[in-house]
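Subject: TfoX/Sxy family protein

B.,
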Amino acid sequence: MASDQSFADFVVYQIEKAGEITAKKMFGEYGIYADGKLFGLICDNKLFIKPTEAGRKYIGEALVEAPPYSGAKPSFLIEDKIEDRDWLSELVRISVKELPEPKPKKRKK
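Prediction pasted inline below.
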């Protein structure tokens, strides 16, 4: 099932305090970026954030991990706290700090 544009817009709104947030459509789902860095996915109208040690500590006991799609590595599944803008923005900020910088794109010849 593909995700709805309205859900992607809602997620971007919820985490707008975490930097320059964009959602890019990918295969009927969405990649979520903060300041150009991919940190999460929206699949089947659910938010998944790449796991980091700081994110794991921040979430604590409420941590739920699941793969966003079949064959994918588990990510943090955000359900209960998706309405909490401040909490979610902080999770994104601390997670993005630990993620590697995107590799530069190669020029086509």
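The first strand starts at residue 21 and ends at 26.

T.
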